[in-house]
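Hey,
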Amino acid sequence: MRAIVLEQFGGTEHLVEKEIEKPSIKDHEVLVKVKAVSINPVDVKVRSRKAPLAESLTQYDPLILGWDISGVIVEAGSEVTSYKVGDEVFGMVNFAGHGKAYAEYVAAPAEHLAVKPKNVTHLEAAASTLAALTAWQAFDSYGKLRSTDKVLIHASAGGVGHFAIQIAKYIGAHVIATSSAANQDFVMELGADQHIDYKANHFEELLHDIDFVLEAIGGENFQKSVQVLKPFGTIVTLPSGHTQDDEKQAREKNLHACYFMSVYSSGRDMQKIASLLEKGIIKPHISHIFSFNEIAKAHEQIETGRTIGKVVVEL
């Protein structure tokens, strides 16, 4: 089968297409013929060895990046009862671990997948994996967003952010979204109740008594976000690399909860995402579609830091 192998950490030139053996599956796994893959900032950070996850992947040869897939089951392990050959499935596979998604076939634990809704394409399904799971788990597993909450969502036009707006509105919360002015219409159309242009305004001077913050930038933005929370509020932050000062500031605010989250593979949560997609409650925005041999270009698009919604690769 064809696969995109990372020959060494560094630039996109190290992503090389190769012919390798099709994977064999374990009893609890299925073999998925991949139709589409999603590319995330974590893919780029691991490739360039700027994420802690990269260190746990140095042992693999060949090293194949990627975790988000949508495709068709062509083989099922002896212990798999929830799926059968021919089922269309999607999910975030083996995160955080060796996902091996940049390939024509992927061996995936059945418990990491969900059935793809019929009203959703493989491209849309692949786009609705890691980013959608992150938003869902931030509001459901780490923090507990309530319908009475005012929630501040940073980087709201990005992959996680654009799902977070839709999920927060589904829950019933009042959504305040930050992005550039160029993306204001986009985030308001997603359902945001208020938009703040982070380039023209200091959100920490405009907001107070916020119940919940989904913080996706880190550094000073985390510290400013803590300032706008009400006592016993909740902040969930996505970037790694928080400091002891960050934790100290959160404690001094008497927050209900401060979570430095990492998304995790979960078929149960993927089934919830599938239900939201099927009902039209959430919809991925795909800004760029690349072919399999253009994965390097997909990485370069993510590296611009200006991607709206999601970047996907079609096989």
